[in-house]
Design brief:
The complex is a heterodimer of chains A (476) and B (226).
Chain A lengths: L2 H18 L4 H21 L5 E4 L2 E4 L4 E3 L2 E3 L3 H23 L6 H17 E2 L4 H17 L7 H4 L3 H19 L8 H18 L6 H9 L2 H25 L17 H21 L4 H21 L6 H28 L6 H4 L2 H4 L1 H14 L8 H12 L3 H25 L13 H19 L5 H11 L7
Helix pairs in contact in A: 1-2, 1-4, 2-3, 3-4, 3-10, 3-13, 3-20, 4-5, 4-10, 5-7, 5-10, 7-8, 9-10, 9-12, 10-13, 11-12, 11-18, 12-13, 12-16, 12-18, 13-16, 13-17, 13-19, 13-20, 16-18, 16-19, 17-18
Chain B lengths: L9 H8 L5 H16 L3 H20 L4 H25 L10 E2 L2 E2 L5 H20 L10 H20 L3 H22 L3 H25 L12
Antiparallel strand pairs in B: 1-2
The chains are: A mainly alpha (476), B mainly alpha (226).
Chain lengths: 476, 226
């Protein structure tokens, strides 16, 4: 049996059971969380190139499987990333137990995970954007979650994956034409050009950040947090897979007229613009949900910069930023979800005013998680941000200052939010947070603070991811 | 009573329809696309979208066997049906022109936004017609290449102009229709065509759901509650 069969069937079977239990929050949370945890544990534990025993059967993890005329292969990078996404999903489920995100999220989350698995394991890789679009289309239902009114948060994330599809398909055609005319470099150059634009659309640096912001602004926080963890991880894995398979993509230019404009430069400068824009906009927000959305955008901008640094950066830096961002997003989203629930769905400063006095633990999780997204000292996000600053500052200190300015902007936004949360309470009948919410928030705070004091906790997962991604040295 | 003659099979039907190949097919696609993007009335937009898919079937019949060309019409038909039912469910069905209400007074049927959209559509159409001889991707046959760029460009314009789920859905389907044409010319693989057609239907379902979630177009405007 192939590992692909396990990762396709196990979550779908669990999703079916969870769907039947969807009216009971505790059993559905436990079952969905256990399924996600098991998947993450198995994927991080199984050696990619060896046979393992699972439920009395021999599983060959990297054996290819043909389903519906398509080939699926679980390589080392996809295996590690899917394990990370499953563990993040388990964390999100734990938070969603006490902060309702819509009943369908528990089964749909597992279905979305298996669709991500399909997107990351499909061969040829050129078809992956089609499956990523399918993921976003299915995600529409959990993003909107029966809410009446604006549909922007569910609608706009569909744009960029759909637009990327023909670019990848045409790039695949050009790659297929290369053996017919091996002397000419035109076909490979055109393929590189098309693939680069496609990747740019999937990675979406500024000014293509709108859909991610809308999703963060309108979607249920924990659902959004997981999608915003999973989408960049999938796009980065696709990029890595293409770089492994097609080395000529490294250094591919986007336009013949401008040979210096490469994907790496666009990601580097686009990432900086994303950080600066997110920081400036975050500083002036009067809505905690929008602040959170900008904070997640800032942390994503840092990931794009690390990708754009290419040979000066490394996969370790990219993944350190992605993992720290993931932890901070889940914790801050949990705090935000509790605040949003208690404020009746309204998250502007007027409606959340004083909520911090009744929800101190949830508010602390939100604020500290947001600070971690900004890469502030004494938080999980600092180690990655510091490493990025060093990599940037070694060549041009001005670039580091731009990113720092964004982080300071977000800190201003957090201080303003803190001031609103600790202001005079308008609804004096508001109940205090219960013990389970406090315990969950406490766990989240530990996840943010512990890596700040013991940065060695990053060592093991980073060693594993670097080993999985080591086929490509130096990125773009 | 004379017995009815047998209904022509698919091959004969498409062979007869080939009289429309060339300029008439491009005109069908062009006009349908322009109206689908410019129209604010959902029924007009859906009718125009169906016209586009009929044109696409005629164009695809030149590139693929007729059964695959028919798949274009079936996909478009299902998408239009899903959106029609969603519009009814969302409460748009009561009026022919669900234009904006303001302070209890219905806006003029030809609102300024319609004029603006029409102007943008005409400008883009003129630009594409002028650029036609210089369009890139020379490996694509002439008519298919023009249709691909036309559909893609209007898909992008639709995304830029549309704020509602239906408008965005139509724009995304136009973009995917261009993708389907690219696939039909460059990589006519049945599994890929099925995959893209399934994606089109899923997209129609998702946007249909969002249309229902959005509710009546005039419900969120002051004084516009029905």
């Amino acid at each position: 049996m192939s590992g692909v069969v396990v990762i396709f069937t196990l979550p779908l079977l669990a999703a079916l059971l969870v769907y039947l239990l969807r009216r009971w929050p505790l059993p559905s949370t436990v079952l969905a969380g256990l399924a996600a945890l098991t998947l993450g544990w198995l994927l991080w534990r199984w050696p990619n190139d060896e046979a393992v025993r699972f439920l009395g059967r021999v599983v060959r993890v990297d054996a290819p499987v043909v389903l519906l005329d398509q080939t699926f292969v679980l390589d080392a990078a996809a295996q590690w990333v899917l394990g990370w996404l499953a563990l993040a999903l388990a964390g999100v489920y734990l938070g969603a137990w006490r902060a309702a995100q819509g009943r369908t999220f528990f089964p749909f989350g597992l279905v979305l995970w298996s669709l991500f698995a399909a997107a990351l394991t499909i061969r040829p890789l050129w078809l992956a954007p089609i499956l990523l679009t399918v993921v976003m289309v299915v995600a529409t239902f959990v993003i909107q979650a029966g809410r009446q009114g604006s549909t922007r948060g569910a609608l706009r994330p569909l744009w960029l994956p759909v637009l990327a599809i023909p670019l990848f398909l045409m790039a695949a055609w050009y790659v297929g034409q290369t053996p017919l005319d091996p002397e000419s470099s035109l076909t490979l150059r055109t393929a590189g050009q098309l693939a680069s634009v496609g990747l740019l659309l999937l990675l979406a640096p500024w000014p293509l950040h709108g859909p991610a912001f809308s999703l963060g602004e309108e979607g249920p926080p924990l659902v959004t947090a997981w999608l915003l963890i999973a989408l960049p991880a999938a796009a980065v894995t696709l990029l890595q897979g293409l770089l492994v398979q097609f080395e000529w993509l490294q250094g591919a230019v986007l336009s013949y007229a401008l040979p210096t404009v490469r994907l790496a430069e666009l990601l580097l400068y686009g990432g900086m613009a994303t950080c600066l824009w997110a920081g400036l906009a975050g500083a002036v927000q009067t809505n905690v949900n929008r602040l959170w959305s900008y904070a997640s955008l800032f942390a994503y901008g840092a990931v794009l910069i690390a990708l754009g640094l290419g040979a000066r950066g490394s996969w370790a830096l990219v993944w350190l930023l992605l993992i720290a961002r993931g932890v901070a997003m889940v914790v801050s989203a949990y705090g935000l979800a509790v605040i949003r629930q208690r404020a009746g769905g309204q998250t502007d400063f007027t409606h959340v005013q004083g909520l911090g006095t009744r929800l101190p633990w949830a508010s602390a999780a939100f604020l500290l998680g947001t600070l971690s997204l900004a890469g502030m000292p004494l938080t999980a996000g600092f180690a990655g941000q510091w490493a990025l600053m060093q990599a940037l500052g070694s060549t041009d200190w001005l670039q580091a200052v731009v990113v720092l300015a964004g982080a300071v902007g977000l800190a201003v936004g957090v201080i303003r939010s803190l001031s609103a949360l600790l202001g005079p309470l308008r609804n004096l009948l508001l109940e205090r947070e219960d013990r389970i919410i406090i315990v969950l928030a406490g766990l989240g705070l530990l996840a943010i603070l512990l890596p700040a004091f013991y940065p060695t906790v990053w060592q093991k997962p980073l060693s594993a991811v670097v080993a999985a991604f080591s086929s490509v040295a130096g990125g773009l | 009573m004379q017995p009815l003659p047998p209904f022509p099979d698919l091959e004969t039907l498409f062979a007869q329809a080939q009289q429309l190949a060339g300029l008439p097919t491009l005109l069908i696609i062009g006009v349908g696309t322009a109206v689908a993007v410019a129209a604010l009335d959902w029924r007009l937009a859906l009718a125009a979208l169906m016209l586009v898919y009929v044109g696409l079937a005629l164009l695809t019949a030149n590139l693929l066997p007729p059964q695959w060309a028919l798949l274009r019409v079936i996909t478009g038909g299902f998408a239009a049906l899903i959106w029609y039912l969603s519009a009814q469910q969302a409460g748009w069905g009561g009026r022919f022109l669900p234009f904006r209400h303001s302070q209890g007074v219905q806006a003029r049927p030809l609102a300024s936004t319609t004029l603006f959209r029409s102007l943008m559509v005409l400008t883009l159409a003129l630009w594409l017609v002028v650029l036609r001889p210089r369009l890139p991707l020379p490996m694509l046959p002439g008519d298919a290449r023009f249709a691909i760029f036309w559909l893609g460009a209007f898909g992008l314009l639709g995304l830029a102009l549309g704020a509602e789920a239906l408008q965005t859905g139509i724009a995304l389907l136009l973009w995917l229709a261009a993708t389907q044409l690219v696939v039909a010319v460059l990589q006519p693989a049945p599994d890929l065509i099925w995959l893209l057609s399934s994606l089109e239907l899923l997209l129609a379902l998702a946007t249909g759901y969002l249309m229902i979630a959005r509710g009546p177009l005039w419900a969120d405007e002051p004084g516009g509650q029905e």
